[in-house]
Design brief:
Layout: H1 9-20, H2 25-31, H3 36-45, E1 68-70, E2 77-79, E3 83-85, E4 93-97, H4 98-109, E5 123-125, E6 132-134, H5 135-138, H6 152-165, H7 167-188, E7 204-208, H8 213-220, H9 223-232, E8 240-244, H10 245-254, E9 278-280, E10 287-289, E11 293-295, E12 303-307, H11 308-323, E13 338-340, E14 347-349, H12 350-353, E15 354-356, E16 365-369, H13 370-402, E17 418-422, H14 427-432, H15 440-448, E18 456-460, H16 461-470, H17 474-477
Length: 478
């Protein structure tokens, strides 16, 4: 490859003369149409001393050669002549000797960065607080392999102060960025609700098909974090879909949407509690008044299952069978080791198959075996959950009817889509200060207050969530 085009000696002498007259390298290079490297080479060819950058007044003055300094990498004490000049330090020399600085420079040039700092580089002094901290622990790393000049605590203080001083400028910009990101997400997932076809961007949100949206938001820093993660993964379709607030919230609360299964939201009125006056005894088969049964507070009608004569006869027969020895099995296990579960009607070892109870209760063991007790608890829990779900549906249905039965903004009249809105805001603050926690607790609170109208109103999830997230509703802004 051919070298640079040679110039005549007379032009080179003119370059040197212009530089001696006070012009800097950049001015000389522009005057003679040269680059700074070529102009510098000409000056060195004729032995012209090159001025330091910034003029003679800013020339670096090297301290006396007999001074010494300890290198922060190799920890050796060397004369200052073996250090590069650095006006940013207190003594005017670099913190590392020339040998260590050149070694690190070559390592970075070949892409080799030491994993752990050596020598005094294990500690670093924060440029703000002046405290020495562990380099790898207390200083944030960069992509270039270097560390920040400030420790993590000072960095946080600086960032927080910058945010507070420029909050009025930062928040509008972040709001615009989040809205643009949400519009990109809506366009990537079809631009409309996959259930009802709603297309207003304020009403659309991302839905986790298999659930787990709350834990996902907590792990990535909120809804915006979820959208950023989906964008980084290329907007995956598996496990995610676009729904409006109405369809998404009803699926979260009830497990279904009225658009797909309207029969699941038919609320039947609560049946009247029957008044039991008579009862049938399962032993004798006779129907008798409740006065003919012993009292049992644990029964739903307050009476024992058997009538008085049958109960007395049953207890007498059980006592005679027990004391005659026929109530226990015979065999090598011995008397009193086994116990019969009245639910599964099997004889089992007391200490292994029955839970311990108080000494005065059935010989120190519970009545049912462990397996039957577990099955009974699961069945009871399922029954209680179903009863609570039905009670909550009725409570919400009656609240919707009390507040007019339709959204005050758009007129939506399907009760699963309707919720209570705080007219003047402050719902989150009220819950944090000990108020009703929302949901059915809120509905019960409003029922106890007589369904007040001043501070509360009925809105659908679309209108309520769009007001809470964006401060506006498309139905009002047009």
């Amino acid at each position: 490859m051919a070298g640079p085009k040679p110039i005549c000696p007379e032009l080179e002498k003119q370059v040197c003369e212009a530089y001696r007259n006070g012009s800097n390298i950049l001015t000389v290079a522009k005057t003679f149409r040269l680059n700074t490297v070529r102009a510098t080479a000409i000056l060195r060819k004729y032995g012209v001393p090159i001025k330091p950058k910034g003029g003679a007044s800013s020339a670096k003055v090297r301290p006396p050669s007999d001074a010494t300094k300890r290198c922060t990498r190799c920890l050796e004490v060397k004369p200052t002549a073996q250090y590069q000049l650095n006006p940013a330090t207190s003594d005017g020399f670099d913190t590392r000797c020339s040998a260590c600085a050149n070694e690190l420079k070559m390592m970075r040039r070949h892409g080799i960065v030491p994993d752990e700092p050596t020598g005094m580089d294990f500690f670093k002094c924060c440029a703000r607080c002046g405290l020495w901290n562990i380099t790898t622990k207390d200083f944030q790393g960069r992509k270039t392999g270097k560390r920040d000049a400030y420790c993590r605590i000072c960095t946080k203080v600086i960032k927080d102060g910058f945010y507070l001083n420029n909050k009025g400028t930062i928040l509008p910009k972040e709001k615009i960025k989040r809205w643009a990101l949400r519009l990109e997400m809506i366009a990537a997932y079809g631009g409309k609700c996959s259930c009802c076809g709603e297309s207003a961007p304020e009403f659309l949100t991302i839905d986790h098909v298999d659930g787990g949206g709350t834990s996902h938001q907590r792990s990535v820093g909120g809804p915006s974090g979820v959208i950023r993660e989906l964008k980084a993964k290329g907007w995956p379709r598996d496990g995610f879909r676009l729904l409006c607030w109405n369809c998404n919230c009803t699926r979260g609360h009830f497990g279904a949407c009225p658009h797909e299964s309207p029969d699941a939201f038919i609320v039947e009125p609560k049946p009247a509690t029957p008044i039991h006056v008579v009862k049938r005894c399962p032993i004798c088969g006779e129907t008798k008044p409740l006065a003919g049964f012993f009292k049992n507070p644990h029964s739903f009608n307050g009476a024992s299952p058997y009538c008085k004569p049958c109960s007395i006869t049953n207890r007498r027969e059980r006592w005679q069978l027990l004391h005659s020895g026929k109530g226990f099995p015979t065999g090598p296990m011995g008397l009193g080791i086994l116990r019969r579960c009245p639910r599964c009607e099997l004889w089992k070892v007391k200490t292994e198959a029955f839970h311990a109870a108080s000494a005065g209760k059935t010989g120190g063991f519970q009545g049912w075996c462990k397996g039957c007790t577990r099955i009974h608890r699961l069945q009871r829990r399922e029954a209680v959950n179903q009863a609570d779900s039905l009670r909550g549906k009725r409570l919400r249905f009656y609240l919707v009817q009390a507040y007019g039965g339709r959204c005050e903004c758009c007129g939506e009249d399907r009760w699963p889509f309707l919720t209570v809105d705080h007219v003047f805001g402050g719902g989150t603050k009220a819950r944090a200060n000990g108020g009703p926690s929302g949901g059915y607790h809120m509905y019960a609170f409003l029922r106890r207050q007589g369904y007040p109208r001043g501070e509360y109103r009925l809105l659908c999830y679309n209108c309520n969530c769009s007001r809470g997230c964006y401060g506006r509703c498309p139905h009002q802004t047009g």
